Amino acid sequence: MNSKSLIEKLVDFYVRPRHISVQIFRASISLLGALAVGGGVSIAYKNMDSSQEFTLSWGDGPGAVAFWGLFSIASVATLVSLFMARRRSEFELDELRVSRVLAVELRGLVDTADSPLVKAIPAKIVGRRESCLVDVRRLVMGPTPNILDALNELVQLRRQIRLMTAGTSREHLTVVAGGVMQVSLLFYAGVLLDDEGRVQLMEWERTTGNWKELDEQDSGERFSISGLTEVEFQCPDIVVAVSASYLADFAGIAQTFPDMPVVQLRLHDPKPNTLLSGTMQEALTRQFTDVMAELANRSVGRVHLILAAPATLCVRFGQAYDPRNMPTLKCYQRERDQTPPYPWNIEIDGNKPARFEQTSQPITQHNLGASNV
Question: Based on the domain organization, do 76 and 121 belong to the same domain?
Answer without folding.
Answer: no
